[in-house]
Design brief:
This protein has a domain of 31 residues. The longest helix has 33 residues. It starts with 15 loop residues before the first helix and ends with a helix. The chain is mostly helical. It is 66% helix and 0% strand.
Amino acid sequence: MSSVQSSETSHPAMDMAAHRHTWEGFVKLVKWGSVSVVVLLILMAIFLVH
């Protein structure tokens, strides 16, 4: 095998702006999902525990 990659097998450079935008969206989703679960658990503890 050759140590030099051909243009067919090499990967293009990452688009860091798109990568950062995707990461920020993921972090926002996880943050608000976690907050929602905590609020739901608190409300369940208040209203469902007898």
